[in-house]
Amino acid sequence: MEFDLIVKNGIIASASDIIDGQDIGIKDGKITAIGTALNSTSLSTKTIDAHGGYITPGGVDSHVHLEQPNCPMGDTWETGSRSAVCGGTTTVIAFVSQARQHDSLLPLVEEYSARAEGNSYCDYGLHVILTNPTMKILTDEIPILAREHGITSVKLYMTYDPMILRDREILNIMMASRKLGMTTMIHAENHDMIDLIIETLEAEGKTEPYYHSVSRPKIAEAEATYRAISLAELMDAPILLVHVSSQTATQHIRDAQTRLLPIYGETCPQYLWLLAERLKATEKDHFHGAQAVCSPPLRETSAETDAMWRGIANGTFTTFSSDHAASKYHVEGGKKLGLVDGKPFFRKIPNGLPGLETRLPLLFKGVLEGRITIHDFVRVACSSPAKLYGLPSKGVIMPGKDADLCIWYPHGKMKSFSLTNDMLHHDIDYTPYEDIEFANWPRYTILRGKVVWDRDGEGLTGKIGDGQYIKRGASLLPGPRNVFVNEWRPPM
Questions:
Q1: Burial class (CB in 10 A: 0-12, 13-18, 19+), 96
Q2: Tell me, what's the pLDDT at 142?
Q3: Which of 31, 88, 320, 417 has the fewest CB atoms within 10 Å around its CB?
Q4: pTM beyond 0.90, yes or no
């Protein structure tokens, strides 16, 4: 057989199995063979020796914000996707964002697609954020997006004044999405609880970054999560609860799954590794905590981070995403929007953290420390997001699939290091994971057969424009069951 690239001597990991002693043959961007002692008839074939390291599918980061208004002074498509491949991720899904005044989605999709086209180092797809779900959009435009643009997921918010939707609007979206086999993503926090707490905190002068975590308690996430699940059960509609951060919300998802409801969950690196104390001032910088402001907020105790690890290990979480929504810290117009005449106001701090490049290494650290298995890693970071979001050629190492690979160092063969921001390839001036110790990192990233990251060699070897837009299909995970709460049926 003829190959462009052969990867030898690795341990191929999937969500269920490990294959040792098999080579991977790649031709024209696809995996064409997995077998013993593969050889090529072409003299131009390149070979990579994995030296006994794990080979996992290229990462699929299904929750990424790039060049969006909610991320001032943030990453562009160029810098964000560049950091993705340097961290082992080969596919991202970002968001077309609708504002209240927009009465059509189609121009927004066209405009945002133009920003990404030719500017990405990795493959990419798009979600749509809905804030003004008119009947015209739901009946006329959403089908066009699914059919012609391959956009088969929508995101909605149960909080934030500019974005919050009423329960009836959420039900309407679920009804439309169900008909088309689309996935509804939900940011679940109780808006009124949060609004009341913020109002009282500000009246008491408690406006430092730390009080962001106080203003959005676990019960606000838990209540909204339960309510979102109830709405989905009424409509028999599949949903994904995004960036879950707390034990009770996780249990609500687990309970729904036990009843066989198509309820999926996502968590993120910050909820595994960081605690609310990171929002406090330091001796040198009273505003330092702004760097860790995200929503839902970092939680108070390790009981919550432990629960997130358990949620990955026991299968409650379907996806593990970065929720990369970065704003620079040391410049005006980024995180410092939360400083008004030198006084901090946590409510005005742009929400979100950088995390595209560090997502996979932080999760792999959990494998090395015995918190999860390599199969858990592949499932939540690669294969399940590909299935949930209709990417059948991604997330798995198998003949006929895209040759997207991440090759790790053999155990004990990489010199450990403490992370500093200057090691990363994003365009953000800090990382919340500064000083975390890493004993492994992606050694190679391969995108459709092309080596785009070679840590021991030239580093970033990919080029801007290597990434291609992917039209997605319907979810490949279980969807509607045609089981309802009583004799009423939503319009089909």
A1: buried
A2: 97
A3: 417
A4: yes
